[in-house]
Amino acid sequence: MDYGSAHDSKEQVRQAVDIVDLVGSYLQLRRQGRGYVAHCPWHDDTRPSLQVNPERQTFKCWVCDIGGDVFSFAMRMERLEFREALEMLAERAGIQLASTPGPKVEPGSPGDKKTQLAALAWAADVFHRHLLAAPESRDVQQYLADRGINDQMRDHFQIGFSAPDWEWLVRQARATQFSPAVLERVGLIGSRDGGGHYDRFRGRLIFPIRDVRSRPIAFGGRVLPQFADDRSAKYVNSPETPLYSKSEQLYALDIAREAVAERGNIVVMEGYTDVIMAHQYGVTNAVACCGTALGERHLHLLRRFTDQVVLVLDGDEAGQKRTSEVLELFVANQVDLRVLTLPAGLDPCDYLQANGREAWDALIATARDALDHKMWLVEQRVGMNPPTHIAAEAVEELLAVLAKVEVSAGQTSSSALLREQQALGRIARRFYLREDDLRERLKTLRRATTRLTHASEEEAPVVVDHAMPAVLSRWEQEIFELVLSDSALVGPILDNIPETAMESRPAQWLYELCHQLHSAHQPVTFDQLMAKATHERQQKLLIDIDESAGEKRESDHDQRLTDLVEHYRKHHEEQNRRADIANLRDGNLDQHAEEQLLSKFFDNLKRRQSGSLSTDG
User: Fold this and answer.
1) CATH number at residue 170
2) pLDDT, tens digit, 9 for 90 and up, residues 490-545
3) In the chain, which stretches have pLDDT less than 70?
4) Cβ-contact 287, 79 below 8 angstroms
5) 52 and 19 assigned to the same domain
6) DSSP conformation letters of 496-530
7) What are 515-520's contacts with CB under 8 Å, separation 24+?
8) Do the bridges between strand 50-53 and strand 35-38 make them parallel or antiparallel, or are there none, so unpaired?
9) How many CB atoms neighbour CB 18 within 10 A?
């Protein structure tokens, strides 16, 4: 079935996937009262802290202070973006998602995503089976053995081999549903100028590149010595396709993700064989970039899985150059990046085979913090006693990096402040400068950076951050508890209390949603509001309100509404009174307005005094 909009599809999937079944497919659930409990996978849970509510179709962990619906659970459990979670759950429920705007895509055509994924999975299997069975692959298998890669890792990473034939894969595909146009769309073959097609990876060792759901989306191909010539590139990677962008993928992340969660960090290497050898030696949290340096899009992907990244670089000049290109990005975004430079002439594969796992772990422990590494690089470049102008340039370079931290992060954490203080002390000692002077210069650079940032923000559309802390005032909490408790009171609440009365950002967001639903003549219910909540913090807020509302089910709802409106009236009057007093004090009114305001004050005073007189005879 095809649904007309993304919202319709989302709701269809939400209703089709039972959260008890979903959570139960990952965790062992135990019945408790009207719900279920399980050990929370996101903290060291000694007793079941994760609660699953089948009535609300939500989950919540009281220790981690997280919760949400089926989408939130899938996103957190599988480290997926929302669209990826939607696709995964739709596939689980057998639901076909609505197509993106544009011409309808025919099943089996080059533009059909399912066909693209199926073609890549087929190719990965064909390459792997060819490596295992073809007579011409014996030398390739020997090459892997010489590199130290065992059969278990060969199969675990589904390493393959493409025959040294211009049209081998094209011929293999003739017995399948995959047309040459499909294979070309996913980057497996290319078009000849005079017509026909050629295999992109002919005569190469094949490394499948998978997404976080372990689906092949691209390939890396290493040329083998016996099939190389002067024009052969050492590595050929898939081109950019609808499924693959090299700046958004990391090789072996799908295999490493569990180890990353267990160890709390991820090790980023430079080569496919480095990663495979690392896993063979038990370094199972290792991944690699796919033919490009770490960039901002990688940063977004990494943050879904860990807060600490260890970047391992080959011990050559090119490795050092690549380091400088990524350090500032990580420092500015306050990501805990550690940098490890291997001994000259060695890569991780060589080092592990020569020294073993224990030596590797000891070496990893020496990895420098990104800011420390940046300072070390600058110090190495300028030498011990640089000329004054060289030293001044080096100091400016280091302070410019430090200046980005606060601007990028919004506010500086205590750990960042400590690192900054240590860095300033080190710069002062190294270049014989006063630390106070460096701090003043840093403030100047930071103000300049802030102005540039604000100028660019003024030109950009305003984006509301819905990831704000879900904190309501007691009065706001009471409003939404009544909304969820008694549908008959929604209209009176919205009629008597304006949106401007909401002071916290979560309340403003939620009250606006209530207005939208009510104006569209839709019920303002927990389910409807959850359907509009796009962030886990929003969903957690709604779950907390609904639970609190349930505890007050037997209260007098009408009296609570009366108290709410009276509280708003008094609060509003007090705000207006304070504003009037401020205008009088500051002289913001003309003579006529001032006289009217003073007259109003005296009238109110008389009424209060009159009301306070005794009426006893």
Assistant:
1) 3.90.980.10
2) 899 999 988 888 888 888 889 999 999 989 888 888 888 888 887 888 888 888 88
3) 1-7, 98-103, 315-325, 332, 406-416, 449-471, 579-580, 582-589, 592-595, 597-598, 600-617
4) no
5) yes
6) HS-GGG--SHHHHHHHHHHHHHHHTT----HHHHH
7) 518/490, 518/491, 518/494
8) antiparallel
9) 13
284/84 Cα distance (integer angstroms) = 24
Which H or E run contains 251? Answer: strand 250-251
Say how far apart CA 507 and CA 502 lie, in whole Å.
Answer: 6
Candidates 528, 507, 503; CA nearest to 516 is 528
Kindly report the three-state secondary structure assignment for every residue of 6-39.
HHHHHHHHHHHCCHHHHHHCCCCCEEECCEEEEC
- The verdict on residue 146 lying in a domain is yes
Domain-terminating residue out of 227, 244, 261: 244
CB-CB contact of 368 with 342 (8 Å): no
Q: What amino acid is encoded at 282 in this protein?
A: G
Report strand pairing: 235-237 vs 336-344.
Answer: unpaired
Do 136 and 236 belong to one domain? Answer: yes
**DSSP SS3 for 134:** coil
Does residue 108 sit within a domain?
Answer: no
CA distance 484 to 16: 24
Residue 14, C-beta contacts closer than 8 angstroms, at least 6 positions apart: 57, 69, 70, 71, 531
529 plus 509 within the same structural domain: yes
Domains in the chain, number: 5
Domain that holds residue 584: 469-605
In the prediction, which pLDDT does 117 show? 95
End of a domain among 59, 93, 127? 93
Whole-number Å distance between alpha carbons of 559 and 310? 59
User: What Å distances lie between residue 171 and 126, 140, 189, CA to CA?
Assistant: 12, 22, 11
Same domain? 593 vs 513? yes
d(CA 252, CA 263): 16
Nearest to 224 by CA among 143, 305, 334, 313: 143
**Cα distances (angstroms) measured from residue 20 to each of 12, 69, 88, 90, 481:** 17, 11, 17, 16, 26
Q: Which of 162, 143, 69 is nearest to 531 (CA)?
A: 69
The string of pLDDT tens digits covering residues 454-471 is 444 444 333 333 344 446
Who's near 531: CB < 8 A, 6+ residues apart? 7, 10, 11, 14
Does 104 reside within a domain? Answer: no
Question: Residue 469 corresponds to which tokens in the numbers above?
Answer: 């802390």
Per-residue CA distances from 593 to 68, 469, 581, 587, 607 (Å): 53, 42, 13, 11, 21
Contact 167, 199 (CB under 8 A): yes
Beta carbons of 23 and 38 less than 8 angstroms apart: yes
What distance in Å separates the CA atoms of residue 260 and residue 282, rounded to the nearest whole number?
12
Alpha carbon distance 335, 308 (integer Å): 7
What the block records as the tokens of 560 is: 């609570």
- Sign of the four-CA dihedral 314, 320, 321, 327: positive
348 vs 277: CA distance, rounded Å: 8
Q: Which residue carries 């280091």 as its tokens?
A: 398
Q: In whole angstroms, how far apart are CA 341 and each of 270, 313, 364, 591?
A: 12, 5, 9, 76
